[in-house]
Amino acid sequence: MQYKPFNSDISLSTLGMGNMRLPVQRLGTKIDRTKAQEIIDYAMENGVNYYDTAYIYHFGESEKFLGEALKKYPRETYHLATKYYMMATKNYKKVFEEQLRRLQTNYIDFYLIHCVTDVTWKRYMNSGCIEYFLEQKEKGRIKYLGFSSHAGVTALSAFADYTKWDFAQIQLNYFDWFYGNTRKEYKALEERGLPIIVMEPVRGGKLASLNKEAEKLLKEAHPDWSIASWALRFVKSLPQVQVVLSGMSALSQIQDNVATFKEEGGLTEKDKEILLQACELFHGQFKVPCTACRYCCGECPKGIQIPDYLDIYNAYKAGELGALKRLEQVNSKGTPADCIGCGKCQNHCPQSIKIPGIMKELAQELRRA
Ligand code: SF4
Ligand code: SF4
After folding, report:
1. What is the pLDDT of residues 123-168, one digit of tens each?
2. Are residues 90 and 191 both part of a single domain?
3. CA distance 351 to 183
4. Which residue's CA is the nearest one to ligand 1's atom 3?
5. Which domain holds residue 352?
6. Distance 204 CA to ligand 2 centre (A)
7. Which of the 8 DSSP states describes residue 7?
8. Of 62, 172, 224, 276, which has the highest C-beta tally within 10 A?
9. Is residue 289 part of a domain?
10. In a domain, 292, yes or no
11. Helix, strand, coil abundance in the chain, percent, nearest 5
C-alpha cells in the first residue's frame, strides 16, 4: 500500500475504504455483514488505514456496521472519517453524540460537513454547527475538521475561506475532469493548500465498465489493467490528492484496488491522451450524471429506486437496444409511473438531476412499450 504524510504526525493510505456501497442482502436494505466484514478485514490486512462513512449511509447502518467491524483492531491502527448532513437533521449536537456511540469510539479522526452545495453552503455557515465542531476539535473529540462538497467553484471557494479547515473532499474522476468543473475545484483547493480526499473516483462504478470501443482502446494500451483501475490511476497521480476513496461492495473490487495502489505512479501523458480518446467514445452513456449515491431514495414517498431507473435511462439514451425492457426487472417498491412529482428526491441530489421529469419520461416510454 502507498502512504502519503498528512502532517508530521500521521500518514494516510492513498486508498481509502468508502462505506456507502457496502454489500446488501437485498437492494436498498440491510448490509450483508458477513461479506462486508470480509472486505473490511481485507482492507485492514492490506494496509488501508482510512475508513469513510456518514450519518446517512445505508440509512444509518453504515456507521453501526463500521463500529462493530473495526472493534477487533487497535483504535490507533485506523482513521475514522464521518460526516454531519444538515438536510437529514438540524440537531448536530445529538447527531455527533450518536455517531460516537454508533462507531464505538470517543473521537473521530476526520470529521466532515457533509454535502456542501450551492443550496446548503450558507445554511451550514449560519447554523452554528461549524463552530460547534471546532469546539469538539479543541476538546480532542475531533482530530481534523473538513467538508465534502458538490458545490460549484464560487460556493466551494467561499466555504473553504470560512474557517481554517484541515482538508476537503470533492468528487473527482477523469470524466468530470475532462468534461466538468472538477479541474477548477481542484485548483481552488490546491491554492488554499487543502489536502483533497477524493470521492467518486470511478463515478459510482460507471467508469468501471465502458462501451466496447472504449474498453478495447484501454485494453490495447494496458492489457493487465482493469477498466476501473484507469480511473484510480488518474486521480492518484494528482499531487494534491491525499486519499482516494472507493466505495467497495465486493471482495473482488478491493482486491483489484489494493493491487492498483501497491504500484507507484499513476498515468503517463500518453496514457492520459488514450483516456481522453476513450472518453470521446463513451461519453454519450452519461446523459444523466447519476453516481448511484442513493441520497434520494430515502426521501421518495413512493419507494422508487431512482438510481436503478436512471441507469436504464442512460442506457436507453445511449441507444442500447432493449434497455427499456429492464424497467420491469428493477427491484423497487414504486415504479416511474408512481412518481407524484413532489421533488423531494431532487432536493437531496448532489448532481442536481431533474428526477421528476425523467420519471415522467420513463413512465411514458413504459406505457408505449
Ligand atoms: S418526485 Fe417522484 S421520484 Fe422524486 S421523491 Fe417525489 S415521488 Fe419520488
Ligand atoms: S439521482 Fe442524485 S441523489 Fe439519487 S442516486 Fe443519483 S446522484 Fe445520488
Report:
1. 999 999 999 999 999 999 999 999 999 988 999 999 999 999 999 9
2. yes
3. 16
4. 339
5. 297-368
6. 10
7. S
8. 172
9. no
10. no
11. 50, 15, 35
